[in-house]
Amino acid sequence: MKLQKKNLLAQKRRWRIRKTVRGTAARPRLALKMTHMHLYAQAIDDDKGVTLVSLATTSKDLRGQKLRPTVAGATVFGEAFGVKAKAAGLNVVVFDRAGRRYHGTVKSFAEAARKSGLSF
Fold first, then answer.
1. How far is 29 from 94, CA to CA, in rounded Å?
2. DSSP secondary structure of the chain
3. Cα–Cα dist 87/22, whole Å
4. Which of 93, 89, 83 lies closest to 55, judged by CA?
5. Res 90: pLDDT
6. Complete domains list, the chain, with CATH
7. Burial classification of residue 38, based on how many CB atoms lie within 10 Å of its CB (0-12 exposed, 13-18 middle, 19 or more buried)
8. Which residues pair with 43 in a beta bridge?
9. Of 55, 56, 103, 111, which sits most exposed with the smallest number of CB within 10 A?
10. pLDDT given at position 13
11. Separation of first and last alpha carbons in the chain
């Protein structure tokens, strides 16, 4: 029962943020998803409903590094995502932190992506 309430409150936070954070072709939404074992990031054009760039710690190029959702893992993952997004022609994005605080893993991912050349 307690876990259901916690999940419901987290979903409400995501919906509240998504009312204002919207991705376009010129400025896609950078969505970050974290589980206990892996990190996932996507650059999404919400107008068309298309994912422009995606990367996960389960991807072939990152699988060998055994990255985990820690501050150190998120830093390496953020740099890799920034490089991939720049290669796809993305410079400016809107950051969707999915209801999580801008602290710890989320902050280290965002700063590493900025260091790689993305601006948000």
1. 5
2. -HHHHHHHHHHHHHHHHHTT----SSS-EEEEEE-SS-EEEEEEETTTTEEEEEEETTSHHHHTTT--SSHHHHHHHHHHHHHHHHHTT--B-EEE-TT--SSTHHHHHHHHHHHTT-B-
3. 22
4. 83
5. 94
6. 2-115 (3.30.420.100)
7. middle
8. 30, 53
9. 103
10. 92
11. 38
**The predicted structure's pLDDT at residue 6:** 92
H or E segment and range at residue 107: helix 105-115
CA distance 87 to 35: 26
pLDDT of residue 111: 97
Coil, helix or strand for 95?
A: strand
Coil, helix or strand for 82? helix
- The pair of structure tokens assigned to 45 is 């054009």
Residue 47 pLDDT: 93
The residues with which 35 forms a beta bridge, in sequence order, are none
- Sheet architecture: strand order including 39-45: 50-56, 39-45, 29-34, 94-96
